[in-house]
Design goal:
Layout (H helix, E strand, L loop, with lengths): L3 H5 L3 H11 L4 H4 L3 H10 L8 H10 L2 H5 L23 H6 L1
Helix pairs in contact: 4-5
Length: about 100
């Protein structure tokens, strides 16, 4: 089974990170919920690859000085996609986060 990370990047450092830190672990240890990943980051020396949920949790639970110590690392760039949504649509927030 091929990882989306490996399909979307040719960066040797990202591939090296994947094989050293994710591929060698059991699935339940390599992948976790945003809440657990953000909590591990708070305790130190841990990186977490997540989506918009992680940023929401950080903004709600971290102090300002904790936020300043974080660094955002771009793993891979995604294609820019635009989607028209009718004003007042109940799906607007779901689409924005994903």
């Amino acid at each position: 089974m091929s990882s989306p990370v490996l399909q979307e990047t040719s960066d040797p450092e990202i591939k090296d990170l994947y094989f050293k830190h994710l591929f060698t672990q059991p699935y339940h240890k390599a992948f976790t919920t945003p809440e657990v990943g953000v909590d591990r980051m708070r305790r130190g020396l841990c990186a977490f690859h997540g989506e918009a949920d992680a940023f929401r949790i950080i903004s709600e639970t971290y102090d300002e000085d904790e936020k300043c110590r974080l660094k955002d690392i771009r793993m891979f760039s995604t294609a820019q996609v635009a989607l028209a949504v009718r004003k007042g649509s109940p799906y607007k927030e779901h689409i924005r986060q994903r």
